[in-house]
Sequence to fold (168 residues):
Amino acid sequence: MALLPILEFPDPRLRTRAAPVVAVDARIQQLVDDMFDTMYAAPGIGLAASQVDVHERVIVMDLSEDHSDPRVFINPEITVIDETLGTYDEGCLSVPGFYETVERPQVVEVTALDRDGTAFTERLDGLMGICLQHEIDHLEGKLFVDYLSPLKRQRIRSKLVKEQKRRA
Ligand code: QAP
Ligand code: CO
Fold:
């Protein structure tokens, strides 16, 4: 069991574009396990490696209430299946305490590698599809606050910087 420190907005390291995983080896499997420990402890429903300062294309998710549906997406590629936009009040472990409405395509198809390095393709809708798009954004150095107005983003930034200074 290992908990990894989570980077918080506006940390510039969250803007790093993650590189593809070259081999799903013991190091990546350890990273996946540590990311699950970190996400479950938070608690959260999704975590991208970028958020723990590892800039490789690894995502973990679990939308169940009892840790019964762990999902791993390594080198994910998504295609939008239904362009219709849906809204959701998104949050992020890297933007603690803030939830804002974001619009995203409703249905996506993902091809990725699992924890064993085996490729799979799956259609995701509802919160699962939204969460995966949010996590893939992290791998591109993008955060949900980027979809908000500059004023809202600045307010969130100021409050978080103040909180980070208080803790330091
Ligand atoms: C991403 O986010 C997500 O502010 C996963 O104080 C969330 O697990 C995608 C969390 C919603 C789509 C919809 C946030 C925990 C967890 C906080 C999370 C907080 C404590 C966020
Ligand atoms: Co996030």
